[in-house]
Specification:
Elements (H helix, E strand, L loop, with lengths): L9 E6 L2 H12 L2 E5 L3 E6 L2 E7 L17 E5 L4 H10 L6 E8 L2 E9 L5 E7 L3
Parallel strand pairs: 1-4, 5-8
Antiparallel strand pairs: 2-3, 3-4, 6-7, 7-8
Length: 130
């Protein structure tokens, strides 16, 4: 019998500059920075969080090839595709691709692709907006 996974709690990004990363994710996504433990930092959104590790000072155990720019993440918003495009433009975010139709975990999504300051590929998407 397999164990059933119910949801994602957190994931880790290894970054070159904690403050720069927090500034980007707070301003563009409205995430909340939280400092905890002994010098640790995370970004909170909804009921999940992104733990941040500073490159060269990662916590153990860590990913085998942890490093800035190795993430590829899709985030879902309730905003429409048009609103996503306008929002990213308002923050001078360079859009790599989008709007494009993709398949999300719960069906069709409309997505925009761009990068964070470390070069991680981000996909900001919405359901129900073709």
């Amino acid at each position: 019998m397999a164990i059933k996974v119910t949801h994602l709690d957190h994931f880790v990004l290894t970054v070159a500059d904690i403050d720069r990363t927090c500034d980007f994710y707070q301003s563009v996504f409205g995430m909340r920075r939280e400092d905890f433990g002994e010098g640790r930092t995370c970004l909170v959104f909804g009921s999940q969080k992104i733990n941040l590790h500073l490159v060269g000072k990662e916590l153990e155990p860590k990913a085998r090839a942890a490093g800035p720019g190795t993430g590829d993440i899709c985030l879902i918003t309730q905003a429409s595709a048009d609103e996503i495009g306008r929002h990213l433009s308002a923050f001078d975010v360079e859009i790599i691709d989008g709007p494009v139709l993709r398949t999300g975990a719960q069906g069709p999504i409309t997505s925009y692709y761009f990068r964070d300051p470390d070069g991680n590929l981000l996909e900001l998407s919405c359901y129900g907006d073709a």
